[in-house]
Each structure stands twice: as C-alpha cells, then as structure tokens.
Amino acid sequence: MKVDGNSYRTIWRADNGSVAIIDQTRLPHAFEVVALVTLDDAAVAIETMQVRGAPLIGATAAWGMVLGLERDSSDAGLAAAYDRLVRTRPTAINLRWALDQVRAALAPLPAAERALAAARLATEIADEDVELNAAIGRHGLDLIRTIAADKPAGAPVRVLTHCNAGWLATVDWGTATAPIYMAHNEGIAVEVWVDETRPRNQGAALTAWELGHHGVPHTVVPDNTGGHLMQHGLVDLVIVGTDRTTATGDVCNKIGTYLKALAAHDNGVPFYVALPSPSIDFTVADGVREIPIEQRGAREVTHMTGLADDGRIETVQITPAGSPVANYAFDVTPARLVTGLITERGVVRAARDALAAAFPERVAAANV
Questions:
Q1: CB burial class (10 A; 0-12, 13-18, 19+) of residue 78?
Q2: Is 89 annotated as a binding residue?
Q3: Domains by residue range for the chain, with CATH
Q4: Tens digits of residue pLDDT in 54-81
Q5: Which InterPro entries does UniProt cross-reference here (predicted)?
Q6: Does 52 belong to an annotated binding site?
C-alpha cells in the first residue's frame, strides 16, 4: 500500500541487513521506520506493539528467528530464539504457526546453513501473507459488489470495522480492509465506519490513518456507536479480522468484537470475518474456554496519547489515580453469530465441517 505516494510493506529486509518495520506506536501523528538488529529487538517490537496484528506478528517472529540465527545458529541458538519469541504474545496463533514453520525447516539443517535458510523462509512467509490477503480481498469484493448492485445508483456500501485489520496488521493489503480497498480501487462507492477501538484506539489511530492515505471515505465513531448505526440501517455489513479462529468457527478478535456481532445479529446485518488460514487453530474447538486471552497493562487504559494544539505528542492520564483497571485484549465471538469466514479459498461457513473441507491439509497437520 502507499504512504504519501510511496509503496510500503509493514516489514522488509533493509540493505544494511537489519529488518525494517513501521513503528505503529507512533502513528497516526508520526511515521517512523525502525530497524530491528537483534533477536531481542524483534521480540520487544512484538511485545510493545510496534508491530501488531496476527499476520504481521507471525512475519516479524519469522524475521526475529533470522536475526537470532545470524548470531547463533547452533541447536541451542535455535531453541533460544524460538523460546524468546513464542513468549511475546499469547493469543494470536500466527506467532506459533510461523515459529513452528521455521523451527521444523531448520532443525535438520547443518548449523552453517540455517541463517540463510531462515531468511528465505521468512521472505516466503511474508510474501505468502500478501497473496493470502489479496485472495481474501477478491472474495470479499464479490460480497461488496452484490450489496452495491442492490443499492440506488451512487449510494455507498457502508462497512463497519473494528480495531485494525488493515495492511498495518499484515504485511500488505490487510484482511478486513482488503475487500474495501479493492472495491474502492474498482470504483465502487464504499464508506467505512471506523470503530475507535479502545483502549489502544487502533481503529481511530491506524485504520483511519491508512484509509485516509488511500483515499477511502470513512468516519471514526466511538466504540459504543455501532449498535445505533445498525438499528438505523446505516450499516450494510460488518467485516472484522481475527487473531485466532477455532476448528468450529469461533472467532477470537480485539475486545469489543463480540458486542458488534451481537448487535449485527439482532439487526440482521451480515457479520463477516476476514480469515487467512494460518489464523485457524484446528487444535481448539471451544474458543471461549480454550483460547488464552491476553491481559495487558493498566497504562493502556489509564492513559491516552495524542497531538497537542502546539504540535507536541503528549500522553495524559484520564482515570482517577488509584482506580483498579482490567485490560482484556481480546474476546471470542461464537460461530453462531458469524455470517461467513472470508478466506483465501472463498467464503466459508463458520462450522467445523466447512473449515475442514476448505483446509484439509491444515486439519491433517494438526493431527486432529
């Protein structure tokens, strides 16, 4: 995608050998590229959410393995790199998926060959993510085309999003935004309701930023507005992303997704999840009971960062001193509330049989 006319991915190998990322903690008020030089740099980038979004976390973990093995490619070095990275974020399944891919491919190789092989594999994982998201975009575009065909001439298709499942959450295109970008590029009138997505405001800060840079009409709304919009017929469909989806179609995504799904179900609004297959965990059946929900620090809730009138970026406290805070980062939407899963292989029912039929090789690999 483009920023100020220049094409970017969210992660790439720089000419000096470092791994470059866009620091998402600085957006939307500052666009900064950061160099990851060591394994620990990559781990910290994931932990502090300089990079975030399940697909991008997976790609960053793969490149983190590269950086680690370039320092120590022994069996101990391979194990240490894996262990350091796998502990960074507990919920997004793409992290473990990418690390397992790299470890399995490198373990049989001589130590001297591992770093170069890891770099090739990290490149493949990043390139595959772009291809998966583009395919999701094409299948989701068909849904938007169908809705557009039933609307009065020139009336926009109105999409509600939650959090950031855009190109900033992936290597490129995004998951939930890929159909939106493709519809916009095709000339279909589309407008996006962007949930602010507390506590980190990833909708207001990131989704709005990237949609604006691509020229997609959008409006930022407080998180509590979605149900009202649906009641008044102002939402044609909801498209969200996912950090982990179970074998039965339960969807774990940013906190607040479940509430949007309930409102959509109550108002007859289609609720779709953009789902690249590496985000499916075929070892898990019950999302509410089995998926670990990350609890993050209180400061994300008690403080907010923004642009002051004088142009300075400032962080201020918004809650009373001493008030306890709970900060659950994700929730689980049961499959019964999901209209369909937009995958790289088409729109699939949120059900075990449909997912197994669409991705039989993933079921076999999970040994279930």
A1: buried
A2: yes
A3: 2-127 (1.20.120.420), 135-366 (3.40.50.10470)
A4: 899 999 999 999 999 999 999 999 999 9
A5: IF-2B-related, IF-M1Pi, IF_2B-like_C, Initiation_fac_2B_a/b/d, M1Pi_N, NagB/RpiA_transferase-like
A6: yes
